[in-house]
Each structure stands twice: as structure tokens, then as C-alpha cells.
Amino acid sequence: MAWILLLAAGLLEIVWATAMKLSDGFTRPLAASVTIATMIASFALLATAMRHLPLGTAYMIWTGIGAIGAFLVGILWLGESVSLGRLVAAALIVAGIALMKAAPA
């Protein structure tokens, strides 16, 4: 169950990061409200997952899901650039998450 909560927390991190971008510096009330609400929910789910998962593992996977997810949202929906360097960096984050998950706690 902790892994499901952690996954949900990571997905909400993607939502709040995207909403923060769309809030235009918190000048758009709806996007700013979505940012704050999903940020609180993401932190609450992360905190709950951390009751059963090691700090380093939980935090790395949470931030990794958010980083890769925000990277993909930026490319696919916000028109951000794609370069070999950015793709390699994203692949290294995914590799790090996989290794962290595979390593004994």
C-alpha cells in the first residue's frame, strides 16, 4: 500500500508542478489553487508512505516521478525543447529510481 501511496504522491507532484507553471507566478487564481491543493495532497501521501518506506528511497522516487513527469509534460504539452542531453539526463534519473527500488532497504 505504501508504494501505491508513493506513486499517487508522485503523480500529484506532476500536477502541482504543471499547475504552478500555468499559474504564471501565482497570478492566475484557479491554477494557483490547484497548485496549493495538489501540493498539500502530494505531501500528505508522501508522509503517509514514509511510515513504511525508508526516507531516502521514498523521497528519491517521489522526486523522480515528479521530475520525469514534469519533463514529459513540458515536452509534450508545453512545447519545451528536446535535446540529447536532456534525454540522457532523464534516462539517468529513471535508472537511478530503478536502482534505488532494486537495492535492499
TrEMBL record:
Localization, UniProt: Cell membrane
Identify this protein by name: Guanidinium exporter
The main place the protein resides is membrane
Recorded topology in the membrane: Multi-pass membrane protein
Please report which protein family the annotation says this sequence is part of: Belongs to the drug/metabolite transporter (DMT) superfamily. Small multidrug resistance (SMR) (TC 2.A.7.1) family. Gdx/SugE subfamily.
* Taxonomic source organism: Sphingomonas plantiphila
Transmembrane segments annotated in the record for this chain: 27-47, 59-78, 84-103
One of the Pfam families matching this protein, by short name: Multi_Drug_Res
Keywords tagged on the record:
Cell membrane, Membrane, Transmembrane, Transmembrane helix, Transport
PANTHER family this protein is in? Answer: GUANIDINIUM EXPORTER, SMR FAMILY PROTON-DEPENDENT DRUG EFFLUX TRANSPORTER SUGE
Name the SUPFAM superfamilies for this protein: Multidrug resistance efflux transporter EmrE
